[in-house]
Amino acid sequence: MSSHPALRDARGRPLGTLRLSVTDRCNLRCAYCMPEQEYVWLPREELLTFEELELLARHFVVAGTRRIRLTGGEPLLRRDLPELVARLARIETLEELALTTNGVLLADHAAALRTAGLKRITVSLDTLDPERFERLARRRELPRVLAGIAAARACGLPVKLDTVVLRGDNEDEIPALLDFAREQDAELRFIEYMDVGGATHWESSKVCSQEAMLDAVARARGAAVPLTRKDPAAPAGRWRTPDGQIFGIIASTTQPFCAACDRSRLTADGRWLLCLYAREGLDLRAPLREGRSAEWFQERIRSAWSQRDDQGAVERLKLDERRGPSMDLDALLQDPHLEMHVRGG
Ligand code: SAM
Ligand code: SF4
Predict the structure, then answer these.
(1) Pocket residues for ligand 1 (CB within 6 Å)?
(2) Residues 6+ apart with CB under 8 A from 292
(3) Distance, CA 266 to ligand 2 centroid (Å)?
(4) Strand 271-273 with 263-266, pairing
(5) What is residue 5's predicted lDDT score, i.e. its pLDDT?
(6) Which residue pairs, CB below 8 angstroms and at least 24 apart, start in 204-210?
(7) Are 236 and 263 spatial neighbours (Cβ–Cβ below 8 Å)?
(8) Of 106, 162, 218, 333, most Cβ neighbours within 10 A?
(9) What is the pTM of this model?
């Protein structure tokens, strides 16, 4: 397949990063993502096979995608995931292949993922307290997550840590999580709680803003200074503490980065979403199963991306005091594609 001229959307943003969801299932129930008791799951026969995922990934790479991140649901619940990693790692012009996981199953799979060609891994970790973990994620899994982080490091996989900070739940752990990240030689990123998808319990009073996070860091370590962004499309601003530790903050709720967003998302059943907040997506599974040509996919991807003008998080910010959860429960039950755990975060 040959390359085409650089593809930009209606706001001049490139098609840089694809978040590829490999399953909608999850073995945790994080309060900010899956707070409900019941979920509607995607039918298994509708999930893309590894062959289909690879083929679509290749179409996206030809159209200009440079980075792929595997996600979910919990991606390590997808059987034989290292086989998919090996397939994607062989795509020559792909610059980055990464994985975001909750870490519960990581100890079992870290070595195989590394051997398959995974370059780095991000583990979500919101607390170091086992009881609090159970309260926040409704499962007693902190020891396995910590073992997963240790296993990834032991086999040479660089680890990043992601923490969603909820006011009144885990903001008091900002210093302890920073200390832990330093011990683990891992860069930590604090994420603002977003009013997205299945975050049906979202309220603005639960958001710990970037400003409040920086205050907490300053109290523990002294004022952090901002670093210049190397990659304008990176969602996290990076900071350095006076004692030299670098960490990130993803301030998508109070300071959206839509203007530089190069991300799109493919759900595990082949729905392509051009914005995290998009209500609709483009079905790529049907044309794939109908045997459409590579040229057809190029035309489809290019025409959709060139018309993209979404800036969902900026629109949410404009709601100001009227801001609440972005989806109601009935809508989520009718269309699971609206869920964060289906669109991959
Ligand atoms: N299960 C994996 C995990 O937790 O890392 C991958 C999928 S998860 C949907 C991807 C990311 O989305 C996680 O880092 C999670 O913390 C984040 N996330 C989910 N809901 C969120 C919300 N309401 N606000 C901010 N981040 C959220
Ligand atoms: Fe938590 Fe990730 Fe599962 Fe959502 S998909 S409930 S963030 S582990």
Answers:
(1) 26, 32-33, 71-72, 74, 100-102, 124, 162, 164, 191, 193-194, 196, 199, 340-341, 344-345
(2) none
(3) 17
(4) antiparallel
(5) 63
(6) 204/321, 204/323, 205/167, 206/166, 206/167, 206/168, 206/169, 207/167, 207/253, 207/254, 208/165, 208/166, 208/167, 208/171, 209/251, 209/253, 209/254, 210/237, 210/249, 210/251, 210/254, 210/255
(7) no
(8) 106
(9) 0.96
- For residue range 220-252, what is the model confidence (pLDDT) as tens digits? 999 999 999 888 888 899 999 999 999 999 999
Query: Dihedral through CA 238, CA 180, CA 128, CA 224, nearest 10?
Result: -30
d(CA 165, CA 127): 9
Which residue, chain included where needed, has tokens 């006076």?
A: 242
Tell me which residue of 125, 207, 137 sits closest to 173, measured CA to CA.
125
Q: How much distance in Å is there from the Cα of 163 to the middle of ligand 2?
A: 12
- Answer left, alpha or beta for residue 68, where phi above 0 means left and psi between -120 and 50 means alpha: beta
**Ligand 1 centroid to residue 236 C-alpha, Å:** 14
**Which atom of ligand 2 has the smallest separation from the CA of 100?**
2
Q: What is the mean pLDDT of residues 2-8?
A: 71
Which ligand gives the minimal distance to the CA of 162?
A: 1
Whether residue 247 contacts residue 275, with contact meaning beta carbons closer than 8 Å, is answered with no
